[in-house]
Amino acid sequence: MRVTCTVNGEPREADDVWPGESLLYVLRERLGLPGAKNACEQGECGSCTVYLDGTPVCACLVAAGQAQDAAIVTVEGLPAAGALDPVQQAFLETGAVQCGFCTPGLIVAVHDLLARVPHPADPEIREALAGNLCRCTGYEKIIDAVRLAASRA
Amino acid sequence: MDFHAPGTLADALAVKAAHPDALPIAGGTDVMVDLNFDRRRPPALIDLTRVGELRAFGADGAHLRIGAGVPYRQIIDQLAARAPGLALAARTIGSPQIRNRGTLGGNLGSASPAGDAHPPLLAAGAVVELASVRGTRTVPAAEFFTGPKRSVLAADELVTAVLLPVAPGPQQFAKVGTRTAMVIAVCSFAVALDPVARTVGTGIGSAGPTPLRATAAHDLPLPWDTAGPLDDDLVRRFGELVAAAARPIDDVRGTAAYRRHALGVLARRTLTWAWDDYRKGRA
Amino acid sequence: MTTTVSTTRGGVGDSALRPDGTLKVTGEFAFSSDLYADDMLWGATLRSPHPRALIRSVDIGAALALPGVYAVLTADDVPGERRYGLEVVDQPVLAGRSVRYQGEPVAIVAADHPETARRAVARITVDYEVLAPVTDPEAALAPGAPQVHEDADDDPRAGHSEPGPDQPLGTGNLTRHVPVRRGDPAATAPVVVAGRYEIGMQDQAFLGVESGLAVPAEDGGVDLYIATQWLHVDQKQVAACLGLPADKVRLTLAGVGGAFGAREDLSMQVHASMLALRTGRPVKMVYSREESFFGHVHRHPAVLHYEHGADTDGTLVYVRARIVLDGGAYTSSTPAVVANAATLGVGPYTVPNVAIDAYGVYTNNPPCGAMRGFGAVQACFAYESQMDALAAALGMDPVELRARNALTTGGLMPTGQLVEGPAPVAELLRRVRDLPPAPAGADFLPGGVANTTRGEGVVRGVGYAIGIKNVCFSEGFDDYSTARVRLEVINGRAVALVHTAAAEVGQGLVTVQQQIARTELGVDQVTVATADTRVGSAGSSSASRQTYMTGGAVRAACRLVADRVYARAGVPEGRLRDGAVLDASGAVVASLADVVGDDPIEQTTEYRHRPTSPLDPETGQGDAHVQYAFAAHRATVDVDVELGLVKVVEIATAQDVGKAVNPQAVVGQIQGGTAQGIGLALMEEIQVVDGLVRNPSFTDYLIPTILDMPPTRVDVLELADPHSPYGLRGVGEPPTISSTPAVVAAIRAATGRPLPRVPVRPEHIVG
Ligand SMILES: Cc1cc2nc3c(=O)[nH]c(=O)nc-3n(C[C@H](O)[C@H](O)[C@H](O)COP(=O)(O)OP(=O)(O)OC[C@H]3O[C@@H](n4cnc5c(N)ncnc54)[C@H](O)[C@@H]3O)c2cc1C
Ligand code: FES
Ligand code: FES
């Protein structure tokens, strides 16, 4: 089947899609956007988090055909005008990135959180990021990054 | 594999009738795991996310009608006052990403014994609405489930909505998991007080082949008139009745003995909280 | 020793930012699963559903007939050595006559789409004769037990490979026995506590699953882009299995999504290469999360019997222990894990009389090998539980009991090895104890947002633990790292290029290499080349050794480069700073760019730590370890004692890192390592029943979420080690070791339950 959607503001089209494929596979393997990661493909890790029509979802749990006509934004689409998004900049500065496999999904999740709640308290940060596993950092510096990005908003 | 994307309920039912072995997909949070892990290869998928009727919710006579395609996020944000037990349960489901996509209809469609939306439906006496090209029928939530991952849903049917009696009294839900978030229930429990009928609705999750009710606790003699404090013996008896109603097994998530024990604790605590709310409401 | 005080921005001691950070936050960093080549095929693996069976036949006909399938290969297609292994060559590339664990690879497929490859795998028929698996390690050691490696033609003991010290190996199902004897093994004492402790099988659970891309080369060789911990040990094993000389198997490190020990052994390296060579097309393999649980070794589950004897004042008189580690079906690094458990088995304490026996055992359970903490984790849970039990028996404060027996500089290990460097054991403990207590409330009660309590049943507890870990490779292993450093002038500025084969796995090694080159060469701009096998081995990114070893190699290569700069500039005792060459008095003699000019200076060198010696096979005596590292934890927990749910409220930790080369990264390692220890304490276990894994998914193998992790307080000490570069001490492993017993001690304090097993499950608490 053919899937047409906009990704990071550009119209995109993928052909010969197997209907059982996930949006994650389409993004990574067909549209050349490997930013969203594939740590579990069962919704448990959040490394594949992307915006689907403005809502953060696990791309691994969206069937390719469900993305027809949708607007998708991935981590690759967040930097504006060549500059890093403030959330990306904060992750970089606070040491919230180690291996970085969780990072793209977390950045989308934090981007969404700060868009909804500009100055979240720690418990709100934790509840909002509970769907994003990180095995390297113990999360403390990720919380630092959220606080830093929020303080600059 | 084929992919159908009906835009209306009528189209969806027609596709389902024409392809009874096609698999509906709503939020995909159960279906896609099965596809990704190669556990399931249906001949076709029927995407329900474009069916507007399934995403509607609102008052329907004496009931609150929640479309099968309403995601948990909306239940939490918009229905907490009218369906408090269900909203409490929804908040414990998966993660924000899962709650953004996952639906009540999908939870019923999967009919997992661990489905967290089920206990509050049982406790509140909810009714499940099923439709096919043959017509529409309703089934009490307590009769919907027939076994682990099995339900009365016929091959040509879809779940269209859940009808909840507008909460006449306080409701509670609590869930035990071995992690602080994003965890499948080891066991869960819902209670719904009905001060009008003077009954105690219950729902037990993850402790039997289907969600269960503690029917013996239905008529627990609570001091409805005085709205006085609950006596310890009564609370203890409620815990025992709930634990006795469970039919748990040992599995990777916990032992049968622990589940029974924990259900007793959850039952005592949630009844006490709900009763406190009832008393406050009366004061 | 030489301590270099950094004056260079982004040099040693500065929290320099990661050079790969921007790519990682924008999603452009290429992990091994992100690789792509034109015309590439997808590989998939057929794995055994049985933990122990004989293979009567394999029928690949139906799989080959599927359109889109390009190759289906079995054991008979392995071109070279049919087995591989880190220390002992015993693990089949593809199972031949028998399978020894559930998930053992039997056949591999290359196809045009992952789904085609999966369908082809499903069409392969294997006729198994299923045998009863050997699953209980104690029973496996008993005389007459069925042998995991009994069939003659599949004899795993066929080869003995380097690298890996020449380990004394056991017989039958015994992989290795390490005894340690010191003083009087039959000593007696007035106060005695004994216990049996158990550790479940933990998984590294890195997020980036096993994956890589093999590209066939024109010279008949293969180029492999792979996430691994040690390129050269992979190269050696892959080349042997492909029957190719090492120079025809070229490895390049692809982005690594965490490692923690799970990438020390091969996974899909040989498989992808075989498929690429057979089809003549690039082949990509990416495991699913479920397959990943079968695709790498795990932390050894262990049963540990301990007896501690002490004087009435708390002074330890003796420790006796029997430690049995289940190594599963193949050797992997079990021999070295056993040695760690034995030699570090009393913990960071001075004990005059020691009798420890540690055993590694073959079973038909999943193979176990390296994981962060490597044998020290299992022992620490047991000895720290014992120290608390002893404190209780003596009526002593548990911190004071530990401090009284604390190892000190100049003390002796049970192996007889003198502890030369700083050993601030008592100080680390007192530091965590003297921190202000955790705040009274908590953001979340046990159960989190699942509404299980409003305070009912919640009891707070506090617990302490300290651990010890060896850094670098031990027991006489020739442990080295190689670095190539080039200084050249680009656009009028002197810049450095550092090239090593050391695996950046997330820990920040690329940053450390840059920092060292900046400090040593006085340049701002340092590029770290992608790690590959075109430069000599760097050894493994394990044993907390890379900052020490590859850091040491980069420093040494930089100093050779600097010497040539001084020679060119004619300043015998020069220094380099801020792009200038200084003389001994500190006066600027020339600009570095002018001295280097058009003639780049390049040096390649190997760095070795001081030698170690093997353990005496009877007594376990010997200077086996290079460096010791210590960390202490204080855990504060809230326990819902009626439901058995635990919320860690706060973790405080103190660790001596010798020199914090990158303070931010050091703290990151400590926090991340601590999280893995909390995971082992509370939730992480691969459940294996009758040799079958029951929870190979992230739905049921649970790792801590952000809601499970408490705020951490990290206190970093910098007591320089006289032998290591900049005085640094390995950082990665110690935090994982003592966090587990500290959390369990806190739960015991809250509940009074004995809790001899981790992970602690709710049913253990409610009893
Ligand atoms: C990471 C993760 C965590 C989770 N955590 C929880 C949890 O804590 N508690 C919990 O209860 N569940 C949990 N789940 C399971 C899942 O999210 C829920 O069951 C959810 O309600 C499924 O809804 P969905 O819309 O995504 O269903 P889908 O996956 O789209 O469908 C599920 C099933 O229902 C059928 N179906 C869907 N809609 C209809 C309909 N209208 N009529 C008939 N059949 C239909 C489908 O054919 C399929 O069989 C989790 C899942 C994931 C991936
Ligand atoms: S890959 Fe989608 S949630 Fe893990
Ligand atoms: S940085 Fe490695 S998983 Fe988060």
Largest sheet strand order of chain C: 3-8-1-16-13-14-15
Tally of structural domains of chain B: 2
Number of strands of chain B: 13
Number of helices of chain C: 17
Note the beta-strand portion of chain C.
25-35%
Helix content of chain B: 25-40%
Largest sheet of chain B: 5 strands, antiparallel
Q: Helix/strand-derived class of chain B?
A: alpha+beta
Shape of chain B: globular
The end-to-end span of chain C amounts to 55 Å
Architecture of the largest domain in chain C, CATH level 2? 2-Layer Sandwich
What's the main sheet of chain C like?
Answer: 7 strands, mixed
Query: What fold name goes in the CATH topology slot of the largest domain in chain B?
Result: Enolase-like, domain 1
C-alpha Rg of chain B (nearest Å):
19 Å
Greatest chain-chain contact: A-C, 60 and 61 residues
Radius of gyration of chain C: 26 Å
**Assembly category:** heterotrimer
Structural class of chain C: alpha+beta
Low-pLDDT segments of chain B? none
What's the helix count of chain B? 10
Can you tell me the overall shape of chain C? globular
Keywords (chain B): FAD, Flavoprotein, Oxidoreductase
Organism (chain B): Spirilliplanes yamanashiensis
GO molecular function, one term (chain B): FAD binding
Domain FAD-binding PCMH-type (chain B): 1-169
Brief descriptors of the model:
heterotrimer, B: 283 residues, alpha+beta, Uridine Diphospho-n-acetylenolpyruvylglucosamine Reductase, domain 3, Enolase-like, domain 1, 2 domains, five-stranded antiparallel sheet, three-stranded parallel sheet, 23% strand, C: 767 residues, Aldehyde Oxidoreductase, domain 4, Aldehyde Oxidoreductase, domain 3, 3 domains, seven-stranded mixed sheet, six-stranded mixed sheet, 17 helices, disordered N terminus, binds flavin-adenine dinucleotide, binds FE2/S2 (inorganic) cluster, 2Fe-2S-bd (chain A), metal-binding (chain A), Carbon-monoxide dehydrogenase small subunit (chain A), iron (chain A)
SSE order and pairing:
The complex is a heterotrimer of chains A (153), B (283) and C (767).
Chain A lengths: L2 E5 L2 E5 L8 H8 L18 E4 L2 E4 L12 E3 L12 H9 L8 H14 L5 H7 L11 H13 L1
Parallel strand pairs in A: 1-5
Antiparallel strand pairs in A: 1-2, 3-4, 3-5
Helix pairs in contact in A: 2-5
Chain B lengths: L1 E3 L4 H10 L4 E3 L5 H6 L7 E4 L9 E4 L2 E5 L4 H7 L5 H8 L4 H6 L2 H7 L7 H7 L2 E6 L2 E6 H4 E3 L2 E2 L6 E8 L5 E6 L10 E8 L4 E7 L26 H14 L10 H27 L1
Parallel strand pairs in B: 1-3, 2-3
Antiparallel strand pairs in B: 4-5, 5-10, 6-7, 6-10, 8-9, 11-12, 12-13
Chain C lengths: L20 H6 L14 E7 L5 E7 L1 H4 L4 E5 L9 E2 L3 E2 L1 E2 L5 E2 L5 E7 L2 H10 L1 E6 L6 H5 L17 E2 L13 E9 L8 E9 L11 E6 L5 E5 L4 H12 L6 E5 L15 H11 L3 E4 L2 H7 L6 E9 L5 E13 L5 H10 L9 E10 L13 H19 L3 H7 L20 H10 L23 E14 L8 E11 L2 E8 L8 H13 L4 E3 L17 H24 L5 E3 L2 E3 L5 E4 H5 L4 E8 L18 E14 L4 E12 L6 H20 L5 E2 L2 E2 L18 E6 L16 H18 L5 E2 L3 H5 L1
Parallel strand pairs in C: 1-16, 12-33, 14-15, 18-19, 22-23, 29-32
Antiparallel strand pairs in C: 1-8, 2-7, 2-9, 3-8, 4-6, 5-10, 11-19, 12-17, 13-14, 13-16, 17-18, 20-28, 21-22, 21-27, 24-25, 25-26, 28-29, 30-31
The complex binds flavin-adenine dinucleotide (FAD) and FE2/S2 (inorganic) cluster (2 copies).
Flavin-adenine dinucleotide sits at the interface of chains B and A.
InterPro entries (chain C): Ald_Oxase/Xan_DH_a/b, Ald_Oxase/Xan_DH_a/b_sf, Ald_Oxase/xanthine_DH-like, AldOxase/xan_DH_MoCoBD1, AldOxase/xan_DH_MoCoBD2, AldOxase/xan_DH_Mopterin-bd_sf, Xanthine_dehydrogenase_dsu
GO molecular function, one term (chain C): oxidoreductase activity
Protein name (chain C): Carbon-monoxide dehydrogenase large subunit
